[in-house]
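Subgroup meeting minutes
Present: P.N., E.W., G.H.
Scribe: E.W.

1. P.N. recapped why we're keeping a running log of single-chain structure predictions: easier to compare across weeks, and new members can see raw inputs and outputs side by side.
2. G.H. added today's entry (275 aa).
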Amino acid sequence: MIPAAFDYRRASSVEDALGLLSAFGEDAKLIAGGHSLLPLMKLRLAAPSVLVDLGRVRELSYVRDRGEHIAVGALTRHVDVSTNDIVQAEAPILGHVAGQIGDPQVRHRGTIGGSIAHGDPASDLPAACLALGASFAVVGPSGERVVAADEFFVGFLQTVLASDEILTEIRVPKIAGAGWSFQKFTRRAQDWAIVGVAAVCNGASRVALVNMADTPVRAHGAEAALASGATPAEAAAHASDGIDPPSDVRATAEYRRHLAEVLVGRALDEAGARS
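Output recorded in log:
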């Protein structure tokens, strides 16, 4: 498949990228690793007239200890997130999830910011960020704003990012010593998950689901049951409460509900064993 014709601009800095976005408006799209946008362009599901390449803006590639949270630059590659010592010590679920994305080629090119900004409900990292209670730093013409992960995803492949804004940093609370688990069910290795679950038990439990709605979503029913004293098995029975999962060529909605219950149960058992 061949994408529609487009212009290409390489940004040298965040400020340069913001200027290009302002100049070209909604016709411009940001690209970094390219694993999310390029497939859509090849299918003609996206047809930006200008691509603004952030790939060489190295100022956005880092992992830093900021006291109560870890700061991860949006252009940090998945492989660097998965192997970083700070992540492994303070938020191990984030490194674990990053290490399972795609294959080695994808992990060496794809970026955490690209995965988050794309807002795909079938993607693993958005759910992990929801379970962690992460927040995202966004920069635009008016300066920086910080958006909680719970408020960031608003629709299928849609986020609160405006066309002239850039996601610059992922801020992850430290959970050293907390219980955690990530479970997913796929038909084949490297496939998108039919259903996935990220769970973090650090006092109050947070459980997030992959591919169960048109956005990454919290399993509030399971969380409420746990808060009321339910066992992991009892809480898992409420995994899909209030959620309307999709039916597609991979699974029916009913099958996804069943998988959610099974995987939430496994995740809560494993998180409990780790805590």
